[in-house]
Amino acid sequence: MLKNKKKNASILIIGNEILSGRTQDTNTSTIAKWLNSIGVKVDEVRVIPDIENTIIETVNHLRKVNDYLFTTGGIGPTHDDITAESISKAFNLPYEVHKEAFQILEAYYKKDEFNEGRQKMIWMPRYANLILNPTSGAPGFNIENVFCLPGVPSILKSMLGGLKNKIIGGDPILSHTITLKTVESEIAKSLTNVQDDNMDVEIGSYPFFQAGKLGVSIVIRSEDQLKIDKCSSEILEFIKQKKIEVVDR
């Protein structure tokens, strides 16, 4: 199958616990790195609360302007896990028991453990395709280009591998980092010149403060290693002229 190099995605983090600061989001990084590795560029990330209308409106917008939409959170057994029902309404599909999901969880749990709360996790939009969960049994699901994953980071990470054949990407998005002992203002003009000469390469500048020292990491991203190498050479050339120290982090 031919690959399309222009595939993009958005990530939608659903959960009041993220917005309140009680839970730190690490799923964005996990999903984005995985998508980059299969040639899908993440164009946008949003965090929204567990409010049905907000979920429906956001999903309907993002699924139309992206090749793929990944949601995390809100598919567990508690009262505020409303993602699956909201996705059903976004697609105007019945919200019902998924027979295959029922069989999976019925086999996973002991009879007295498969309680009403856990049975909530088998309710999904009609026609949903399951995303199998090798860690805790309860599957995620996808409808068309929307992929719904749990919010627990370790579980989410274990489920991504099963999606590889469902996602058509392009060449992996490669990156190279050059870390400098300097400040952004010292390299801004020279770095702009390199970017202007290499418009099809993404060059980012990220200041940091570590162990009492200021520095800047320059990250070069492209699908083409030769283009990365060219930019790297140009950056190292002006760094040499300015006598800026390259450091390891």
Fold and architecture overview:
The protein is of the alpha/beta class. It has 2 domains: 8-166, Molybdenum Cofactor Biosythetic Enzyme, Chain A, CATH 3.40.980.10; 174-246, 2-Layer Sandwich (Alpha-Beta Plaits). The chain is 37% helix and 27% strand. The protein contains 9 helices and 12 strands. It has helices spanning 16-19, 27-37, 52-65, 83-90, 99-108, 116-119, 153-160, 184-197, 225-242; strands spanning 8-14, 41-48, 68-72, 95-97, 123-125, 129-131, 140-143, 146-149, 174-181, 202-210, 213-222, 245-246. The strands form 3 sheets. A 6-stranded mixed β-sheet has the order 2-1-3-8-7-6, with helices on both faces. Strands 10-11-9-12 form a 4-stranded antiparallel β-sheet, covered by helices on one side. α3 packs across α4 (83-90) and α8 (184-197) packs antiparallel against α9. The radius of gyration is 22 Å and the shape is elongated. The two termini are 40 Å apart.
What is the arithmetic mean of pLDDT? 92
Question: What is the CATH superfamily label of the largest domain?
Answer: MoaB/Mog-like domain
β-sheet strand percentage: 25-35%
Task: Report the count of strand segments.
Answer: 12
Major sheet description: 6 strands, mixed
The helical percent reads: 25-40%
Query: What low-confidence regions span 5 or more consecutive residues with pLDDT below 50?
Result: none
Q: Can you name the CATH architecture of the largest domain?
A: 3-Layer(aba) Sandwich
Gyration radius (Cα, Å) is 22 Å
Shape field: elongated
* CATH topology name of the largest domain: Molybdenum Cofactor Biosythetic Enzyme, Chain A
List the strand order in the largest sheet.
2-1-3-8-7-6
Count helical runs: 9
Number of domains: 2
Give the termini distance in whole angstroms: 40 Å
